[in-house]
Amino acid sequence: MASVMISYRAVLCFYAFFGVILATWNTKDYLKREHTLVKPYSGSGMNIHLWDYVGTTMVTSNYIRLTPDRQSSQGAIWNSVPCMIKNWELHVQFKVHGQGKNLFGDGFAIWYARDKLQLGPVFGSKDYFVGMAIIADTYSNHNGPHNHQHPYVSAMINNGSLHYDHDKDGTHTELAGCTSTFRNQDHDTYLAIRYEGSLSKLKVSMDIDGKDGWKECFTVDGVRLPLGYYLGASAATGQLADNHDIISMKFYELDVPDKPGDHNKQHTGLPEADFFASPRDHVDDAKGGFMSGSSWSGLKIFFVVILVLVGIVVCGIVGYVIFNKEDPTKRKRLY
Ligand SMILES: [Ca+2]
């Protein structure tokens, strides 16, 4: 009888165990635990499993505060596992808040970058970075033309050669961006980064209205990133300050079918982007107009110039011949 009871219990345990596993699989299909940061953060002491933090970052039970509402702070948190997934989506729950009514800053950035845990001037992380930054800039430093409303969310791709220019709010290095009033909201605020490496496509969306729905911020094609970089979040304050809190970062692997043909080879070089939003002389339609579009190459312009020069020379020769045919009589009269 006892053995029957034991086996009965064993069967119950077996079902309960696999029931939990199946439920986990069903509800969290593609969630990747190794790249995900959720409550409760700390296992033992102040350590977070698979995540490292630097600077002013403070871990509490409810949020990770990258910077407090205090001047001259820099803080960051980085995943210690390199990301080897080609197509992914990252959902970041964040909260930017502070006492400043009109003056606050500077903002935060979400990273997919080669070098982690290096504090610096680009919203708490290093300049001339290699990788991708999704920047949530709360303070407008730039008062010139082509200014936009703040807070402002934008993307920057860097191969290590570009400097982030705060004086211009990064407008000349951004791929695309949108205005987003995410600061000092009473409800939860979210940012989503969707990168489809198979299609070289980047999409950033915001959920900041408390209505539980994503609103597209921008989509850009021609973004090529290699595998093996790190996910992170950083923030900075300067003269102005704000609390920059990360509540969670949930990483999902996407099931994106590869394009037919040879287009979907994994990009292995440094990060690349086809298109940069121009701060000046922005051409809206690259397909239509004269001199627009990539087909108008330097070589074509060279041949056109040669043709024009040949035309001028031919006209000159023809004109000279005609002039000389008519002129002898005129010249003779002068004698
Ligand atoms: Ca700024």
Describe this entry's structure for a reader:
This protein is of the alpha+beta class. It has one domain (31-259, 266-273): Jelly Rolls. Helix content is 19%, strand content 29%. It is built from two helices and 16 strands. It has helices at residues 2-27, 298-334, and strands at residues 51-55, 58-59, 64-67, 74-79, 87-97, 107-113, 130-137, 152-159, 176-179, 189-196, 201-207, 215-220, 223-224, 230-236, 243-253, 272-273. The strands form three sheets. The protein has a seven-stranded antiparallel sheet with strand order 1-4-14-6-7-8-9, with no helix packed on it. The N and C termini lie far apart (143 Å). The model is unreliable at 1-6, 11-15, 17-28, 280-297 and 327-335 (pLDDT under 50). The protein binds calcium ion. Calcium ion is lined by residues 106, 137, 139-141, 166, 169.
Query: What is the number of E strands?
Result: 16
Report on the biggest sheet. Answer: 7 strands, antiparallel
Low-confidence blocks of residues: 1-6, 11-15, 17-28, 280-297, 327-335
Question: What ligand molecules are bound, each kind once?
Answer: calcium ion
CATH class group: Mainly Beta
What structural category characterises the helix and strand content? alpha+beta
The strand line-up of the biggest sheet is 1-4-14-6-7-8-9
How far apart, in Å, are the first and last alpha carbons?
143 Å
Please tell me the CATH architecture by its name.
Answer: Sandwich
Mean pLDDT: 83
| Proportion of residues in extended strands | 25-35%
CATH topology description: Jelly Rolls
**Rg:** 29 Å
Number of individual domains: 1
How do the SSEs run, as a string of H and E?
HEEEEEEEEEEEEEEEEH
Number of H- or I-type helical stretches: 2
The backbone outline, from C-alpha atoms, is elongated
Helix content: 10-25%
